């Protein structure tokens, strides 16, 4: 049986009645993945390009279904009535409300469960991934699907609750399946010449994207020339990196990553725990390493020479004190 066709649809949202679904199973599932920024965080906020990669080992699954009473939320952070959810779930609730408003059902009561392996506040796109999964599930429970642009706008509504004026890079990348080039608010696929194996190491220190974005803005006020020159160089590195990724030039990619880390430190978004893991990665054979995401904590992204050395690199980073380590491969065409 197909989903009902009489769902009221808000006039400005580009939503479609789902073609799958069953009256016997009224719930719906949404999914999204983690992301890591290969190069260009912070510079994207000022219009420079960036490259990001999906992290397939980590993801979010959300399920939504019409509630029989007041809606309830179930996640690792909170179990209970949605009406009493704590402030730290503001982003999730914003995502849910944005999707319900777009569906023209702002007062619908849903039971929502969220299962996420993406660590929160580590620069891996947890807030955007949770929002994307919740929005897809909520729309699905209303019998709807959204086109890419509508999904993006809805995720951005939640991202604004997370950190003010997001560039849209996270919102785009958590739904991407391959490496993406982000420029002017849009993504396109990046050609990948050869497999690239990355190790992601968590400092265990909470990343503070909102604070880090504000710190760059302040520094730009006090030192416009210095900051603009760093942002320009980050943009140039991203452009060169795109070519290097397409030809599989690992050494050049690694060098650009390490240079980006220095520039990001200069913008004031570093942290001693990030530097410690960056040094451990390069001492452990990484071709380059940098902070990834908002910074001031969170994760380091390191490029391994190959899959075998990624194993040793992971061990090295664990011994250096990483709270968690993941490996992710960006597959080349070859
Ligand atoms: C720091 C930043 O560039 C990336 C956060 O993952 C912020 C943004 O793009 O909105």
From TrEMBL:
Single GO MF descriptor: ATP binding
InterPro entries linked to this entry: GHMP_kinase_C_dom (IPR013750), GHMP_kinase_C_sf (IPR036554), GHMP_kinase_N_dom (IPR006204), Mev_gal_kin (IPR006205), Ribosomal_Su5_D2-typ_SF (IPR020568), Ribsml_uS5_D2-typ_fold_subgr (IPR014721)
NCBIfam families xref list: mevalon_kin
Source species: Microbacterium imperiale
Protein name: Mevalonate kinase
Domain GHMP kinase C-terminal, chain residue ranges per copy: 248-321
Gene behind this protein: mvaK1
Domain GHMP kinase N-terminal: 94-170
Keywords annotated in UniProt: ATP-binding, Cytoplasm, Kinase, Lipid biosynthesis, Lipid metabolism, Magnesium, Nucleotide-binding, Transferase
Gene3D superfamilies named among the record's database cross-references: 3.30.230.10, GHMP kinase, C-terminal domain
Pathway entry: Isoprenoid biosynthesis; isopentenyl diphosphate biosynthesis via mevalonate pathway; isopentenyl diphosphate from (R)-mevalonate: step 1/3
Cited SUPFAM superfamilies: GHMP Kinase, C-terminal domain, Ribosomal protein S5 domain 2-like
């Amino acid at each position: 049986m197909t989903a009902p066709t009489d769902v009221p649809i808000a006039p400005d949202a580009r939503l479609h009645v789902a073609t799958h679904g069953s009256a016997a199973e009224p719930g719906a599932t949404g999914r999204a993945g983690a992301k890591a920024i290969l190069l260009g965080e912070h510079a994207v906020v000022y219009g420079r390009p960036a490259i990001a990669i999906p992290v397939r080992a980590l993801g979010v699954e959300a399920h939504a279904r019409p509630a029989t009473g007041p809606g309830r939320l179930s996640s690792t952070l909170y179990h209970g009535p949605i009406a009493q959810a704590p402030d730290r779930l503001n982003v999730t609730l914003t995502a849910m409300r944005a999707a319900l408003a777009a569906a023209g059902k702002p007062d619908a009561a849903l039971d929502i469960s969220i299962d996420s392996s993406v660590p929160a506040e580590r620069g891996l796109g947890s807030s955007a991934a949770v929002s994307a999964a919740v929005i897809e599930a909520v729309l699905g429970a209303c019998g709807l699907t959204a086109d890419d642009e509508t999904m993006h706008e809805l995720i951005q509504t939640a991202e604004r609750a997370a950190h003010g004026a997001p560039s849209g890079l996270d919102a785009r990348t958590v739904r991407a399946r391959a490496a993406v080039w982000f420029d002017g608010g849009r993504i396109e696929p990046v050609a990948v010449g050869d497999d690239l194996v990355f190790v992601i190491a968590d400092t265990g220190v909470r990343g503070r994207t909102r604070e880090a974005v504000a710190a760059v803005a302040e520094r730009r006020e006090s030192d416009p020339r210095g900051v603009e020159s760093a942002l320009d160089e980050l943009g140039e590195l991203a452009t060169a990196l795109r070519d290097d990724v397409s030809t599989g030039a690992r050494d050049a990619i690694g060098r650009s990553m390490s240079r980006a880390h220095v520039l990001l430190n200069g913008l004031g978004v570093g942290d001693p725990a990030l530097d410690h893991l960056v040094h451990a990665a390069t001492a452990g054979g990484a071709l380059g390493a940098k902070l990834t995401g908002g910074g001031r904590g969170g994760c380091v992204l390191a490029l391994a020479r190959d899959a075998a050395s990624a194993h040793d690199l992971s061990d090295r980073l664990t011994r250096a004190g990483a709270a968690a380590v993941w490996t992710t491969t960006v597959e080349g065409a070859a």
